[in-house]
Task: structure prediction
Amino acid sequence: MFKKVPGTKDILPDEAGHWQAIEEAARNLFSLYNYRQIRTPIIEEASLFNRTLGNTTEIVQKQMFLIHNQNDVYALRPEGTASIARSYLENNMDKTNPFTKLYYIGPMFRLERPQKGRLRQFHHIGCEVIGSQEAILDVEVISLAAELLKSFAITEFKIKINSLGCPNDKQALGLSLKEALHKEKQRLCPDCKVRIENNILRILDCKNEGCQKIVKALAIKNTHLCPDCLNHFKEVEKGLGSLGIAFEVEPFLVRGLDYYNRTVFEFTHSNLGSQDAIGAGGRYNNLIKELGGPNIGGIGFAFGIERLILASMINAEKPLNRLVYLITLGETAKAAGVKILNQLRSSGIPSDMDYLNRSLKAAMRAANDAGARYVLILGEDELKKDAISLKDMSNGTQREINIQELTRELKC
Ligand SMILES: [Zn+2]
Ligand SMILES: [Zn+2]
Result:
């Protein structure tokens, strides 16, 4: 028998209700903030990600799903931001609608090691706002992320923020780290020994305990920020404060991707154990320019839907069950039943019938298992009288009614 690909997951009907509830809450909230949905393809040219996420990042080096097609190399998208930046430019939004607020919901792909419980296909809900460097926009985006979590009934979350500064500041931070970490190099984990050469900021958020100790001892503050960046960060802090949003400044928060600069942030939740991030985001003021567009800012975030579901306490809301279940006895009744079912559905009444020619008793059990509110029983005798039996499953009462009356009866 075929099995699903390791690191993928079937979302079965019992669970799908939870997904729908989260997606609907997200759509409603994004609309409230005037964000519009964008749906980009799940495949892109692989070089889009090399260029934007950075060649030395773990995602590009180890986690891309590549598809070789003649002379082209495509990748299944590992995240949403690069695709949206590509689409923004390709569709001339920089000219027609330079300040654009977008959101997206969809699958992402990374070649993770499934034995660690990581998914190779996972799902993001996220947004991107392109066209402004204003600190109040950072405040809106972070507060929107917090409101989203609340709308999913997730309350016990923490917000960590930091500023990486502009590319110059990032470079200065990298240099001072390199100097400070030089004599510690032998004590770093194997990954960080490589990072010290090609992606030094990532050492700051290494999960290895030894590395964390070394980094904590460095006592990094935001001293690498130039006056403009420092001012921008202060405005973000002030703006969040004015909205009553609690946050912690976390100087070790860097986010791994090359395109981030200035504000970065992360949402964590205690339900999730050591890998406690539910979502994260940040500014990418050079991304659009890097892809050949104008020099305008951008900011966004993404939440992992699987992680939201783990953190959320809401149960999928059971739909108010109004299902009508039809049982027919005999061939003539079956043919008439198909028509009745069609009429009920045309009138917006959710309905189904027994397709397995079960005995009345077995079919009643099936109706009960399906959670039917009403059961209709149509036999040859009833049909002759133009009648049908209607059983109310909530109180067990049964009566015969005229078929013509049926829709009206069930509507009220
Ligand atoms: Zn700066
Ligand atoms: Zn390390």
In short: The pocket of zinc ion (ligand 2) is lined by residues 188-189, 191-192, 206, 208, 211 (CB under 6 Å). Residues 324-411 form a domain with the Rossmann fold fold (CATH 3.40.50.800). The chain has a mean pLDDT of 92. Residues 13-32 form the longest helix (20 residues).
